[in-house]
Amino acid sequence: MTSIDRTSLLPLRYQLKQILLEKIESGEWKPNDLIPSEQELQKMFGLSRITVRQALSDLVHEGLLLRERGRGTFVAPPKMTHSPQARHTLTEFMLSMGIRPGWRVIEKYFTEASREIATQLNVPSDTRVFCIRRLRLADDEPIGHHIAFLPEALAAEINENALLEGGSLNYISHLPQMHNSRALRTIEAVAASELDEQLLQIPHGSPVLMIQRTVFSPSGEPIEFLQARYRGDRFKYQIST
């Protein structure tokens, strides 16, 4: 579809959306490109402002376009994809897309385990555990916020240098317990918290993908409990069945 067909039974809003989608999928409009304004699209296709705005809003909600106040509407960068079944890490996906992956360590400290953390790590409540808070970066842009908890005994064994490179488990991948380890994940869509908005630089109420993961040794001993929150407009989780 390259033009509006006023004899078609398809709503004008849907037709315009398909035209704009084709420009994105064909590569005519590339990631981060500024697209024509609402007024320009009105003139180009002879449509009302509300029809144009509705079509753009649909693409914004689907994560294909980004609106920036005072600047305009841009083609969204490709979403980061994590597919645990395929054993492809998010870092590998970013590299394949020409995106520079990275990490930023915010803080590392010992703390007393809350009831949830104690349950996940199978330790008594108020036991001391080690906490690492990091930002996941894509071309230096924050796309995810990680906070990991480990049993106190493992704190001295982590690879400090590996906190800034590779996958999320790179910093403990050398541990004997990690050989043939397994992970249990839960995934949930939530609204951004104030901390998410601050760390991920996203507007109030933005969608966030919350992932919780507990890694177990082959004998069933918990090694790490992770709480991660990712920008909904930059990240998707792929599951094969």
Helix and strand arrangement:
Blueprint: H1 12-25, H2 38-45, H3 49-61, E1 65-68, E2 72-75, E3 80-82, H4 90-96, E4 101-112, H5 115-121, E5 128-138, E6 141-151, E7 182-191, H6 194-200, E8 207-216, E9 222-231, E10 235-237
Helix pairs in contact: 1-3, 2-3
Key phrases:
10 strands; 241 residues; 2 domains; 23% helix; Arc Repressor Mutant, subunit A; 6 helices; alpha+beta; Chorismate lyase
What does this protein look like?
The chain is α+β, with helices and mostly antiparallel strands. The chain folds into 2 domains: 64 residues, Winged helix-like DNA-binding domain superfamily/Winged helix DNA-binding domain (Arc Repressor Mutant, subunit A, Orthogonal Bundle); 158 residues, Chorismate lyase. Helix content is 23%, strand content 32%. The chain contains 6 helices and 10 strands, in the order αααβββαβαβββαβββ. The strands form 3 sheets. A 6-stranded antiparallel sheet has the order 4-5-6-9-8-7. The longest helix is centred in the first third of the chain and has 14 residues. 24% of the residues are buried. The mean pLDDT is 89.
Helix share, percent = 10-25%
Q: Please trace the helix and strand order, writing H or E for each element.
A: HHHEEEHEHEEEHEEE
Shape: elongated
Largest sheet: 6 strands, antiparallel
The CATH topology name of the largest domain reads Chorismate lyase
CATH architecture of the largest domain: 3-Layer(aba) Sandwich
- Low-confidence segments: none
Structural class: alpha+beta
Write down the overall mean pLDDT: 89
Q: What's the N-to-C terminus distance?
A: 33 Å
Number of strands: 10
Strand content: 25-35%
What is the CATH class name of the largest domain?
Alpha Beta
Radius of gyration: 22 Å
Count of individual domains: 2
Strand order of the largest sheet: 4-5-6-9-8-7
